[in-house]
Amino acid sequence: MPVNYNGNHTHGEAPKGIYRKQTTDVGSFPANPFGLYDMHGNVWEWCADHWHGNYEAAPSDGSSWTTNKNSENRVLRGGSWFSNPSYCRAAFRNSGSPAYRGSNVGFRVVCSVFQHSSTIRTKQWELFGRIQKSPDLFR
């Protein structure tokens, strides 16, 4: 699946790709089988999880893993436009300080699914309106 990464590098036997040297608009590449765009490449995505060196004692209910004696770092996933393609895989995770800011990190807005579709539509438009009114929010 095509992703936005540093195309000057390769992964496995794959050929070199295109190095765009910047982020691309969401939807520039096809969605994955779940209908989600840009899950790999483009920007590292902050996760709520605190960094752990392994998955021992991780929650099994899908909740965020926010307990750790050293909670200074958070999990980053997905790789970025600046990354070697080896990092732009679901199996790879990284860590970083939540204080870090850069053009290669971001986050994904996730909403809970409500029972009534009209409520979902209203919440989505409310969020979209807030984002449009605050363009500097994501810079």
Summarize the structure.
The chain has 139 residues and is an alpha+beta fold.
Features:
139 residues, alpha+beta, 4-stranded mixed beta sheet, 1 helix, 12% helix, globular, disordered C terminus
Task: Furnish the topology, listing elements before pairings.
Blueprint: E1 44-50, E2 74-77, E3 93-96, E4 105-106, H1 117-133
Parallel strand pairs: 1-4
Antiparallel strand pairs: 1-2, 2-3
What does this molecule look like?
With 139 residues, the protein is α+β, with helices and mostly antiparallel strands. It has one helix and four strands, in the order ββββα. It has one helix at residues 117-133, and strands at 44-50, 74-77, 93-96, 105-106. Strands 3-2-1-4 form a four-stranded mixed sheet, with no helix packed on it.
Stretches where pLDDT is under 50 for at least 5 consecutive residues are: 120-125, 131-139
Cα separation of the termini: 27 Å
Could you state the order of secondary-structure elements as H and E? Answer: EEEEH
Helix content: 10-25%
Portion in strands: 5-15%
Report the total helices.
1
| Computed Rg | 17 Å
Query: Which class of secondary structure composition applies to the elements?
Result: alpha+beta
* Rounded mean pLDDT score: 81
Q: How many DSSP-defined strands?
A: 4
Largest sheet: 4 strands, mixed
Overall spatial form: globular
Major β-sheet strand ordering: 3-2-1-4
